Amino acid sequence: MTSLSRKTLSAALASATLTIFFAASAAPASARWRDDDGWGGPAAAGLIGGLALGAIVGSAASAPSYGPVYDEPAYPASCWIERRPIIGRFGQTIGYRRFRVCR
User: Fold this and answer.
1) What is the DSSP code (8-state) at residue 3?
2) What is the spatial distance between Cα 20 and Cα 31, in angstroms, rounded to a whole number?
3) In total, how many domains does the chain have?
4) Distance between CA 25 and CA 28 in Å, rounded?
5) DSSP secondary-structure letter at 20?
6) Residue 100 pLDDT exceeds 80
7) pLDDT for 44-77, tens place per residue?
8) Residues ≥6 apart with Cβ < 8 Å to 99
9) Residue 80 is inside which H or E element, if any?
10) Measuring CA to CA, which residue among 67, 48, 49, 56 is closest to residue 7?
11) Domain-embedded: residue 103
12) How many other CB atoms are found less than 10 A from the CB of residue 52?
């Protein structure tokens, strides 16, 4: 498991935990948009939810970047084709074969 997927999985787990916690502790619905105790409850819920969402997005966005990964070297390899003799069983030259030689 890569570092980014592990962080994403832990952020999703934290988000699900917070969602379940707030859903279980929610007060029963009321037809009034403002309770007798004022704006304290909705403001606190919005603040906590915003902080949680900001922490999740921030942790996912701050994954370390190690730069691009190259399969080939950054410099061109110096390669050429050479003809090399094919030596027979008794030491005589039978023919020539092309070989790719790289430095």
Assistant:
1) H
2) 23
3) 1
4) 9
5) H
6) yes
7) 888 888 888 888 888 777 766 666 666 666 666 6
8) 81, 82, 83, 84
9) strand 79-87
10) 56
11) no
12) 17
Q: Is residue 101 part of a domain?
A: no
At 6-59, the pLDDT tens digits run 778 778 877 877 777 776 666 666 655 555 556 667 778 888 888 888 888 887
**Stretch (H or E) spanning 99:** strand 93-102
Does any domain span residue 98? no
More reliable by pLDDT, 72 or 79: 79
Query: From CA 103, how far away is CA 97, in angstroms rounded?
Result: 19
Give the pLDDT of residue 11. 81
Exposure string over 73-99, b if 16+ CB within 10 A, otherwise e: eeeeeeeeeeeeeeeeeeeeeeeeeee
Range of the domain at 48: 3-28+38-61
Place of tokens 């023919």: 95
89 inside domain: no
